[in-house]
Task: structure prediction
Amino acid sequence: MTTTTGQQFDLLVEGRLSPALSGRYFDCVNPSNGGVFARIADADTVDVQMAVQAARLGFDHGRWPQMGAGDRASFLLKIAALIRENAKELADLECASCGKTIKHATFIDVPTAAETFEYFGNLPGQWINETMRHSAPVLSIFEREPVGVVAAIIPWNYPLIMAAWKLAPALLTGNCVVLKTSPTACAAVMLLAKLAAQAGLPKGVLNIIASKRAQAGEELVGSPFVDMVSFTGSTKTGKAVMALASNSVKKLTLELGGKSPNIVFADCDMEAALGGALSAIFMNQGQMCTAGSRLLVEDKIYHEFVGKLAGRAKNLKIGPADDFETEFGPLVSVEHRDSVLKSIEKGKQEGAKLACGGKIPESNPQGAYLEPTIFVNVRNSMSIAQEEIFGPVLCAIPFSSVEEAIHIANDTKYGLAAMVWSRDLEKANLVARRLRCGTVWINTYGVFLNQAPYGGYKQSGFGRELGLAGLLEYTQIKHIATDQTPGGRSLVTNWF
Result:
């Protein structure tokens, strides 16, 4: 059982933990039982301005950008160690605020966050400078410099991991950061703010805020003192962020929504594909941007596969997220659960048929619970197959050929991820290369590596997280050319 009750978390601004200037707090609600377990300081626009000013001063006049990458990396390793030391409390908070099962939070979220800080904390610094050799009598050096003040905005579904994905590379490259977490499910990140303060980062380098007010996010994105916005969230909100950031021509990375195809061929390992399909849509109760929410099954095995999948989905153990025996917890909130129910009703009205689920379980009257849901008789043109529902709703669609599978898979405005299940690896790789998305998993799901870039195509966004590509997103490149003409006078000095 979780041990998190009655906690209060403040903002991290200018190296200090303090309440919002208004003194307001908002409640953090446990979706397993509807109870309030923590209070979070509610930042207003003035708090955002103070956080941005602290980061601006830290970058423009502090020592952080001028420190060696190795010195900055040592702070990342301190944060990683503190995450590991406080792993149980972090997992309990993630479980209590997100509805994420305690097994998931304990064995995935918390260690992944620590590993991300460790990966970037141990990354060699060769990425900083590059010297180009050419025939001209000029020494050309390309230098990677930090962008400046970075606004990092994260969602509620994987708050601790998303915070690590953005903070570790942004800090390593010498930026100062204002991290804004979603007001929904942010308790673990606010504990991370405490741990970051303990790590002893220089004043203003890292600021962490939460707010219930839309104006706070608008203030952060629109501030002329912010140089870059790294945003993860819905495509709708990402478009608003992009428009607001354009006023001051900020650098942007956007990791947005998805409607990922999970392609199952008749020659697959059926047991592996069944388990993978369950994980791809029902882990974290389907609240994943990479969720395999469109299940494309070759017609030869369609009825057998979907029938077995529905049978397994019906038997998933639904219950409180803090119970280690629970396989399927609540959604993040009652409001979000009700939104998913509206999408299910829309699917039924369009002619799709429920193979299982689609309603609130009778055995769990309290909390934000919803049964794992699978639709059949789905056409790819239906709204449930095109719109991101962000919940445990699977659309099963048959196909009869490789070409048809690729066509259906690509027939969406999104392009974040995809899965392919086949024993024929040549065919699977051919399909993978023709899918218009940023990540393809073959005979597996959800493999995220700190070394491998992650991001989307189309309206799933642009830019990358993780890996060298993700690290370099937080830099800008400068070319320094030094004349080396014998005698010290290049041609241009004698042009006129």
Summary: The first strand starts at residue 7 and ends at 9. Residues 7-256+460-479 form a domain with the Aldehyde Dehydrogenase; Chain A, domain 1 fold (CATH 3.40.605.10). The mean pLDDT is 95. The chain has two domains: 7-256+460-479, 261-442.
